[in-house]
Amino acid sequence: VSLSIICPPQNTATSTSMWNDELGFLKLVGRVLEKTSYITKPGGICCLVLSYEFERGSERLIPMPVRVLKSIHVGSNESSWRLVDEMIWVKGSNQKKIKHSEAEMVANFKDIPFSQIFVLEKREPAVERASRQEVVSKMQEPDAVKDEMRDAVWYVQPSSENVLRGSIHSEVVRRLVLIYSKKGDLVFEPFSVDGV
Question: Is 5 exposed, middle or buried (0-12, 13-18, 19+ CB in 10 A)?
Fold first, then answer.
């Protein structure tokens, strides 16, 4: 496999979750990444899409994306993956941008829900690849879409409540495939929650 897109089910996705606690989720993601590593060719890419979580019964936001990266030891000798890129997917239109004066404040997740996309490369051996910005500049896409794809923040409106709460939107998958694969590559998206 040249490219994997992993968007594991999170508690924000449905009222009945596949895991009961943070440790259970971290173990799930670790197992998925370990299995994905077995089927990924050297230098292959894994795009890991993760949302923040609310602590049950409170408004406290849990930074699950950061906790996942720490738990799988990305970049250490223990991991078969290294972090090569990162984007934020804001689940809304670019009309809902945070004002410059509010840039230092933490955004209200309920008003501006987002997911982080970590682009991981399978180590050993490292493959020379063009940057996201270089790849996007050569694409046959409208300029507005290309500008956003070059940026680290993507605004993609959810198509349903499921996409808003945790699953992945087909437009996000399309962009990741365009940027991180080429014709003839095998792409793996095991959770396909939006029917991608």
Answer: buried
